[in-house]
Sequence to fold (38 residues):
Amino acid sequence: MLRNSLGNDEAELNALHESIDEGVGKLGEIEKELATAK
Fold:
């Protein structure tokens, strides 16, 4: 997904940030599940 170019426009950067935020949110949920499973 990451393109090796400096020509990213604002929309592409915003979409990338949203994807990262979603991934971080999912990791947070997984961490909570692991913590409660102990």
